[in-house]
Design brief:
Layout (H helix, E strand, L loop, with lengths): L11 H74 L6
């Protein structure tokens, strides 16, 4: 059984070998691009995680500020009541 030769003078085995080489080269390129894509996704996720952490800290700080503001409002209201109850010269 002899080798089949095409119009370009290449045997079937040479054509299969060339096809496998192209396939392997394409696979290596795909792996490299995929690796770059994964690295890019990692870089994109880091800032979003940082933003989430900062937003959580900001929410906590705003809650503390609101509590402090309520406390100040209560003390100011108590002071106003005291001043109204005891009018008179300050000096």
């Amino acid at each position: 059984m002899g080798e089949e030769i095409n119009d370009e003078g290449k045997s079937r085995l040479d054509r299969i070998d060339a096809g496998l080489q192209k396939l392997a080269k394409g696979h290596l390129q795909f792996r490299e691009e995929y690796r770059k894509l994964l690295k890019g996704l990692e870089l994109l996720q880091e800032p979003s995680q940082d933003v989430s952490a900062r937003q959580s800290r900001l929410d906590e700080t705003l809650a503390q500020l609101a509590a402090a503001q309520r406390n100040a409002d209560e003390k100011l209201a108590a002071l106003l009541i005291t001043v109204k109850l005891f009018p008179g010269p300050l000096m």
